[in-house]
Design brief:
5-stranded parallel beta sheet, 4 helices, about 30% strand
Length: about 190
């Protein structure tokens, strides 16, 4: 029989009140607190904490306070990841972010959700769907990326948008729900 953490890691419904997962969340909160309290000049210390918190990290990550996440170890970021003030990543399922990505203030990525069945919700069953963000993506202020979304390369997400479905490369999306405003052809 699988443990709740094994179910969680396999992407299956799991008990969110499981003690082992609760301990993992406590570890994540402690690391987030340390990260958020470090001075901007403490570059190497910040880098070390980010690498302890996240599952994998490219070169030169930069995260402003107050960053929050559930577990951290399900977050994978590429080179030059920039996370501005007051961002949240709920990493119940893997959250993979490519190179040169920017998250504006209050941007949020949610790989977590709950069952439609009220009985399962009442029994604290959790679910997750991976979120994948390509290279050179800019997520605008207060934007929300929902579970299961994939964004291609060179995507711009407008401020205050809610991204409920996946989009391919080279587009500017905005709205609630987000839709394509125009093709964004990058300059070489």
């Amino acid at each position: 029989m699988k443990t709740e953490k094994e179910k969680f890691l396999a992407g299956e419904p799991y008990q969110i009140m499981d003690p082992e997962l609760a301990a993992d969340e406590t570890r994540s909160r402690r690391l987030c607190k340390i990260l958020n309290e470090l001075d901007d000049a403490a570059i190497s210390e910040k880098d070390k904490v980010i690498r302890q918190l996240f599952g994998s990290v490219g070169k030169d990550p930069y995260i402003q306070p107050n960053f929050r996440c559930d577990f951290g170890y399900n977050i994978h970021v590429g080179d030059n990841f920039l996370c501005n003030y007051d961002n949240v990543i709920l990493d119940i399922a893997p959250v993979t972010i490519g190179d040169h990505c920017l998250m504006a203030p209050h941007a949020q990525i949610y790989a977590a959700y709950h069952p439609y069945d009220p009985t399962q919700r009442a029994n604290f069953i959790g679910l997750g769907k991976p979120v994948t963000i390509g290279d050179n993506v800019w997520i605008g202020a207060n934007a929300v990326i929902l579970p299961g979304v994939t964004l291609g390369n060179n995507v711009i997400v407008g401020a205050n948008s809610t991204v409920t479905k996946s989009f391919g490369d080279n587009v500017i999306i905005a709205g609630s729900p987000a839709k394509v405003l125009r093709k964004n052809m990058p300059k070489n």
